[in-house]
Amino acid sequence: MNSGHLQRAMLLSEQGRHQEAVAELRLCLAQNTEDSLTHGLLALSLKELEQFDEATEHAQRAIHLAPDEAFGHYALACVMIDRKRFEEARVAILEAIRLEPYSANYFGILSSLELQKSRWREALAAANQGLEIEPENGLCTNLRAQALVKLGDRAAAAATMGEALARRPDDAYTHANQGWAMLHAGQPYKALEHFREALRLDPELEWARAGIVEAMKARNFIYRWMLTWFLWMSRLTPQVRWGLVIGAYLGIRVIRHLADNSPDLAPFLWPLVYAYAAFVLLTWLSPSFFNLLLRLDRFGRYALSADQVRGANLLAGCLLLTLGCLIAYLWVGGELLMLCTIFFVALALPASAIYVCDAGWPRQLMAVITAGLLAALLLAVACFGLAFQLRSVPLLNISLQIIQALPLASLASQFAAIYLTQVTVRN
């Protein structure tokens, strides 16, 4: 009786009917509460239903009942991955590999975790180990190609993906992976073909949906240039990325200082400062701006996620406020309206980062930062207006102090945005 429920549960799980699989597995446990395999399978189904606490309990129970069997550790690793607790997942899968060193899928999971941590060479090594065990393993093949792309070996990555597609022409994940490889190679139109095929095979594949959005935006030559930069940056480790950001900022401050103090060099140095400012503005705004263009496209809007739509709407609001202030300034003049125009452009930067941040405290903090900047501007405007109405020097001083602090606060918000968009919230 127990084995019948177990077989039905495994079949239902393969079909993606996890709620029904959970019911069958609970019937199994009702007859034998000490079966480690059932606990492990129940953990895997529960994590698909995002019932993470219970899934963790069952995975740990499976390990407790059979500490020398690899499956419980594998189940715990899978649960920890979905909980975004990657170091705990890595410990669990390494123990599964120690107990069962001839499972290619275990090495595939290890490779995916190394990719998550930007350890490209370690990811490649793990994928290669899996392929030594099972040369046609789909997971390891795809992960090997991803690692090769990150390492800049596009020829080897293309050869790997070509072999994978020849073996599995109907595998959605392989087509999505090939699409991303094409994006890295600067071929958005070919990438679109693979992303479309991936979504035809699996309409719920988020990896392909995210890719098709990038490929559609990359049809514009400006975004295609920016995407090349973003993908190149993604191949660097987080430490190197931060080093480049901080180094570029410090370098441009040195150039500005030289331009201010060296009239002969100023005509050559200021263009560098302006080019840097334009580039930074593009890197921060281009993803949300081109999402906004897709939002206005009758086909592109269906490719965007809910968060991307919300981010595009926020950016549209900031741009409309900017346009309104600019028109008012051109109509009636006034330095305050010009400052508002500049500020709303700057406000678009943190606002566009809100829905790039993970849901949870990073997104909430980014929203608070954006709201704080907006509140500071409104307070400055209110104090400025009351100062002239009441002829109050203290109120005018408060307004001027806030206005003077806004550029520094806006710059600080950008560094906060860079950090918060890289934070992963654990489930």
Mind explaining what this structure looks like?
This protein is mainly alpha-helical and 427 residues long. Among the domains are: 1-101, Serine Threonine Protein Phosphatase 5, Tetratricopeptide repeat; 242-420, no CATH class. Helix content is 81%, strand content 0%. It contains 20 helices and no strands. Helix 6 packs antiparallel against helix 7 (104-116), helix 9 runs parallel beside helix 11 and helix 15 (238-261) packs across helix 16 (266-295). The model has no long low-confidence stretch (mean pLDDT 84).
User: What sequence of helices (H) and strands (E) makes up the elements?
Assistant: HHHHHHHHHHHHHHHHHHHH
What is the percentage of strand-forming residues?
Answer: under 5%
Structural class given helices, strands, pairing? mainly alpha
Gross morphology is elongated
Largest sheet: none
Q: Please, what is the average pLDDT?
A: 84
Approximately how much helix is present in the residues? over 70%
Number-wise, the strands total 0
Distance from N terminus to C terminus (CA atoms, Å) equals: 35 Å
Low-confidence blocks of residues: none
Number of helices: 20
Evaluate the radius of gyration. Answer: 27 Å
Topology:
Elements: H1 2-14, H2 18-31, H3 36-48, H4 52-65, H5 70-82, H6 86-99, H7 104-116, H8 120-133, H9 138-150, H10 154-167, H11 172-184, H12 188-201, H13 206-217, H14 221-234, H15 238-261, H16 266-295, H17 306-332, H18 335-353, H19 361-390, H20 393-420
Helix pairs in contact: 1-2, 2-3, 3-4, 3-5, 4-5, 5-6, 6-7, 7-8, 7-9, 8-9, 9-10, 9-11, 10-11, 11-12, 11-13, 12-13, 15-16, 16-17, 16-18, 17-18, 18-19, 18-20, 19-20
